[in-house]
Design a protein that fits this description.
Blueprint lengths: L2 E3 L2 E3 L1 E3 L2 E2 L3 E2 L2 E6 L7 H18 L4 E6 L5 H10 L6 E5 L37 H13 L1 E3 H8 L3 H13 L3 E10 L6 E3 L2 E3 L7 E9 L1 H10 L21 H6 L2 H8 L4 E7 L12 E7 L2 E9 L6 H21 L3 E7 L2 H7 L10 E6 L15 E2 L7
Parallel strand pairs: 6-7, 7-8, 16-17, 17-18, 18-19
Antiparallel strand pairs: 1-2, 3-6, 4-5, 9-13, 10-13, 11-12, 14-15, 15-16
Helix pairs in contact: 1-2, 3-4, 3-5, 3-6, 4-5
Length: 388
């Protein structure tokens, strides 16, 4: 049952007994990894709720229950929540009760249970189908985006995404900005009986529908994350404000790219411009799932090629080193991917070396959507050495 402390709402509350120390005053927050937020950003939102706990319920503790099929998300939440000003336990959602050792430090206890906090009403979530809420959450992070980007990050097809986005527009949670239109690329011409076959129609154009979230839609997204509807939460957005470029359109399709390239891979969720606290690197996109039966992070670097070979080599060497150490610290596998033009892949070749057994590195052309070399653990596979 939802409860509130001041304006902060938590999913539940429980007085937990830890004999012989006594009873805790523990507030429960449920966190779902597929809610459209990377773990560090979700923690930033949650931390802002804790100040009212520390002020209005002195001695209160926090229990964060994390759902999901794997353990990486919960481990990352636990790592970042260590700096919270109150005792925090982070567990998987199927744990009946956290042990004392699960808390960041020993929680405050009293000899009798604390009085329960006031109950809060269930927040209205816009009466949306599950897939429409997923689209709304993606838009709340992107601000605006194309149908194909929203579909890729939402984890479903373009037709379904388009249908769900129209529902959001009907409810005034999003607005349709219009179509970005560009001429079709000329097709290769073939001479058959002195006639040119394959010439494209010069009037033929491709359109890309573009959508943007509204203030009303942002409020619904915030409530779905367990946060107040008027909450100031800039951390929910992409780490940078990316330009509408080929670079951005490549990494926003990252989860769909993996699914198309490796049909045997499970992709549970994914995000763009992921900020990882304490790690001086921001992957262009990060997906989380399972590969070869093992929990895996799919780390993407999309390189435009606007730097010199030396700078590209230095950047890729550093990023790979940081990503490798990070995955090892949280006990998950890592697939490190560079999407770039062929000359950039070749320039990075010398930097992509010294691969441990829990890491695989592949590269591919960012113009070749849905194709990646076969993953081999402990090895590097360049897309320039493979053919479709």
């Amino acid at each position: 049952m939802p409860v509130h402390v001041g304006t902060s709402v938590f999913h539940d509350w429980k007085a937990i007994e830890y004999p012989p120390a006594g009873w805790t005053d523990t507030f429960i927050f449920s966190m779902q990894p597929d809610a459209g937020l990377p773990p560090d950003d979700y923690v930033d939102g949650l931390k802002k709720l804790t100040w009212q706990l520390t002020k209005l319920r002195r001695g209160a503790s926090l229990w964060v229950k994390v759902g999901g099929p794997g353990v990486w998300y919960a481990r990352e939440v636990r790592r970042v929540m260590r700096s919270a000003p109150l005792a925090v336990a982070v567990t998987l959602s199927d744990i009946a009760q956290p042990s004392v050792e699960s808390f960041s430090f020993v929680p405050y206890t009293i000899q009798v249970p604390s009085p329960p906090p006031p109950q809060a009403e269930q927040w209205y979530l816009g009466d949306l189908p599950r897939n429409a809420l997923t689209c709304l959450r993606v838009l709340a992070r992107l601000g605006s985006g194309y149908t194909v980007e929203i579909a890729a990050l939402g984890g479903f097809g373009i037709d379904l995404a388009r249908k769900m986005l129209r529902i959001l527009v009907e409810k005034e949670y999003a607005v349709y900005i219009g179509d970005f239109v560009k001429p079709a690329k000329p097709k290769q011409m073939i001479l058959i009986n002195d006639k040119e076959i394959g010439r494209s129609n010069p009037n033929e154009k491709k359109s890309y529908p573009f959508w943007q979230i509204t203030k009303k839609g942002t409020s619904i997204a915030l409530r779905s994350w367990g946060l107040p509807p008027d909450y100031y939460f800039p951390e929910r957005k992409e780490f940078r404000t990316p330009l509408d470029s080929r670079h951005r359109r490549a990494y926003r399709k990252w989860p769909a790219w993996i699914r198309k390239a490796w049909s045997h891979a499970e992709v549970w969720t994914g995000w763009t411009e992921v900020h990882i606290k304490g790690l001086d690197a921001t992957p262009d996109a990060l997906a989380w799932g399972r590969l070869d039966g093992m929990e895996t992070l799919f780390w993407l670097e999309a390189e435009s090629g606007h730097s010199s070979r030396q700078k590209i080599q230095k950047k890729m060497s550093r990023r790979l080193s940081l990503a490798t150490a990070y995955a090892e610290s949280l006990k998950v596998r890592l697939v490190f991917v560079l999407l770039a033009m062929p000359w950039v892949q070749e320039a990075a070749r010398t930097a992509l070396a010294g691969i441990p057994d829990h890491v695989a590195v592949v590269t591919s052309d960012w113009n070749n959507f849905g194709w990646l070399p076969v993953v081999e653990w402990g090895k590097v596979r360049l897309g320039t050495e493979w053919s479709e």
